[in-house]
């Protein structure tokens, strides 16, 4: 039984099992969407982040992560390291970007290594579409072209767009549940 009916105390195996439900792609609570994997509770939780019940689900994920940490039990290994680092508010690295999306990482790496990054025709502008919702991210001065002088800044900016800005609502509620529980 996942819960002791006598005192309603969650068992440690239940915490691991719940973390498996959250993290395992097999259970589709952490599921890929389109080109980039992102945190999504099925059926279609990302379509309505304004729904308070959906936000409570993200908060519950943070609470379970905190309970597991407090009891020194591992979360399911499918939990992405970049997401755990984001929840703990550690700075995210390009290694985290590789885990999030190898394709996006290769794009950034090619810009950083190419002798003429202007040839890619990239700008500080990114459009992310999920579930029919389009979000536009631009650099501080709009769509500035990527050049040899600003390509490192572009790489850092793009990492922030995908690992923080496009998931800020989900991460905010996961953090809220995590730190409230600890």
Automatic annotation (TrEMBL):
Record-annotated HECT domain positions: 10-182
Gene3D superfamilies the record matches: Hect, E3 ligase catalytic domain, Hect, E3 ligase catalytic domains
Keywords per UniProt: Ubl conjugation pathway
Record GO terms (molecular function): ubiquitin-protein transferase activity
InterPro entries referenced in this protein's UniProt entry, alphabetically: HECT_dom, Hect_E3_ubiquitin_ligase
One Pfam assignment: HECT
Protein name: HECT domain-containing protein
Organism lineage: Eukaryota, Discoba, Euglenozoa, Euglenida, Spirocuta
């Amino acid at each position: 039984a996942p819960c002791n009916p006598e005192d309603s105390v969650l068992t440690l195996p239940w915490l691991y099992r719940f973390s498996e439900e959250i993290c395992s792609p097999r259970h589709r609570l952490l599921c890929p969407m389109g080109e980039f994997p992102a945190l999504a509770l099925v059926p279609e939780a990302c379509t309505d982040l304004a729904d308070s019940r959906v936000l409570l689900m993200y908060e519950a994920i943070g609470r379970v992560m905190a309970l597991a940490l407090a009891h020194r039990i591992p979360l399911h290994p499918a939990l992405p390291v970049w997401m755990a680092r984001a929840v703990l508010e550690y700075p995210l690295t390009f290694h985290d970007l590789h885990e999030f999306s190898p394709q996006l990482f290769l794009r950034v790496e090619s810009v950083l290594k190419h002798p003429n990054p202007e040839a890619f025709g990239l700008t500080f502008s990114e459009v992310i579409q999920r579930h029919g919702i389009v979000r536009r991210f631009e650099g501080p001065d709009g769509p500035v072209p990527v050049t040899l002088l600003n390509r490192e800044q572009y790489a850092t900016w793009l990492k922030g767009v995908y690992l923080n800005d496009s998931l800020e609502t989900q991460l905010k509620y996961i953090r809220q549940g995590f730190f409230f529980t600890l």
